[in-house]
Amino acid sequence: MDWLFKEDDYVPVKDNSRYLGKNIFIFSEIISKIINGVNLRQSNSILSANPLMRFILLISTIILLSLSTKVTFVLLTDVLIVFTVLAIVKNNHILKAAFTFASFTLIMLIPSILNGNKLNAIIIVLKVFGDICSVSILTSTTPWNDIIKVLKFFLVPDIFIFVLENTLRFIYLLSNISFETLCALKLRSIGKNNKKYTNMSSIIGNMFLKSKNMSEEMYYAMECRGFTGEYEIKTRFHFSIADLLFATLIVVVFIFYFTMGR
Amino acid sequence: MPLLSVGAAFSFLIMMFNLPLPGGTTGHAVGAALIAILLGPYAACISVTIALVIQAIFFGDGGILAIGANTFNMAFVMPFVAYFLFNFIKGNSQSKKRTYLAAFIAGYVSLNIAALFTAIEFGIQPLLFKDASGLPLYCPYPVSVAIPAMLVPHMLVAGFVEGFVTVLVYGYINKTSPDIIDKGENFKTKPLYGLLAAMIVLCPIGLLATGTAWGEWGSDEIRELIGFIPKAMENGFNFNSLMPDYTISNIPEVAGYIISAVSGIILIFITFKFINSFKRSSE
């Protein structure tokens, strides 16, 4: 019984296990992004427009932005996009993320700028900023199932939609599993872990085996319920005022491009 | 079919796993080599494509128009190189050491080849797009800068991460349930996968190649690629910025010749593909 009363002087060896915390953070982020992405509520009447119109606006903005070589057009579009983020979407994370990406691009272009290629480099940075903002606007205002619906309109094959949709579900499920496993590993990690790579690859391997079982179960369940692999859109296209607004925006972007963007 | 979505989800998540690097930093693997070995190259091709699409559309990491270039490098070049290299080195031997060595080399080499392709795509940008005064419009770095900038960090660091992940996860699965690993049998019985993979991969490249005809080739995806890089290839970035003393306009004529030849071949290939699909749909 003596040992019970003795003071322990165990000092665990310090170890750099930042990767574990980082992983746990990343997986919780993925999970929350998926939950938010699927459950988005459209609080704003402007944002209730048909996802198709928004998608077309996004794609045309990106294409025109990338084609343009004029700084005025790019700058103007960027200003409009930032205005949209601030006034309608009200999500500062979008601007922060876009700013980070743009700064990275700027760092990468420094040697080129020093060589005298100033204006084009600035245009690239502005384009990156505008693109990332506009994609984030779409994903943060449109429920993800709606985006998948849009793909059907563009005649994307059913098998692709099927795989895409289920991938999102599996990402959610597998993220949960990895999140829990990583937490378990973190709780049990005391002192120095010399098998970091073995640990991580075992988690990845385990995830693969689990996912394989899950996919087989799902396949049988779907076959039993008579799924044939075909998707149909049941909702009809209603043209609302919000849609008209987006249609006008699309036209405006094109007019801008052809008057001052080329 | 459900296996594909699992493969896609799996490859998405592998890209999310941070692995410790010496010096307390972290890095991540692409995982395309691993999936190619586990599920076969066709399934890997589709899986990684979808993983990249989801990353771009739903998570906003990486450009929408860059999907073409990204999938070509990471979902097409990488899994096929890895798969054939793995089988080539492994041969018919049952030796564990040889199999693991094959897995490592497949991961290491395939990532570097994918990086090389990316570098070439970057490098031809200044050749193709110039403004009136001859300054590059998009990516300003020529092949002679882009290739070492991409390859050196990949050869020194990222390739090893990819190789280790490939061999360790392969080893784990081989130990726990060896029967799951693709033996190449379902490979011939399912030509559908191949067709689908070709379609998915060729669509974006087709977009890219029709652009060439208009002299706008790659304008979209390179800018997007730049946006994508911070996430996937941070190393290439820093290296680039460390090299201020290069010359922009010194591209050897031979390189330009080879590049135009390659893009010509791609263009012809796409045209044939396009005519074929047009024929099929009219029938």
UniProtKB/TrEMBL annotation, chain A:
Source domain of life: Bacteria
Places the protein is found: Membrane
Topological relation to the membrane, as annotated: Multi-pass membrane protein
UniProt keyword terms in alphabetical order: Cell membrane, Membrane, Transmembrane, Transmembrane helix
Claim: Transmembrane helix is one of the keywords in the record: yes
InterPro entries in the record: ABC/ECF_trnsptr_transmembrane, ECF_transporter_component
Transmembrane segments: 94-113, 119-138, 150-172, 237-258
GO annotation, cellular component aspect: plasma membrane
Any Pfam family hit: CbiQ
Span of the signal peptide: none
UniProt name for this protein: Cobalt permease
Lineage of producing organism: Bacteria, Bacillati, Bacillota, Clostridia, Eubacteriales
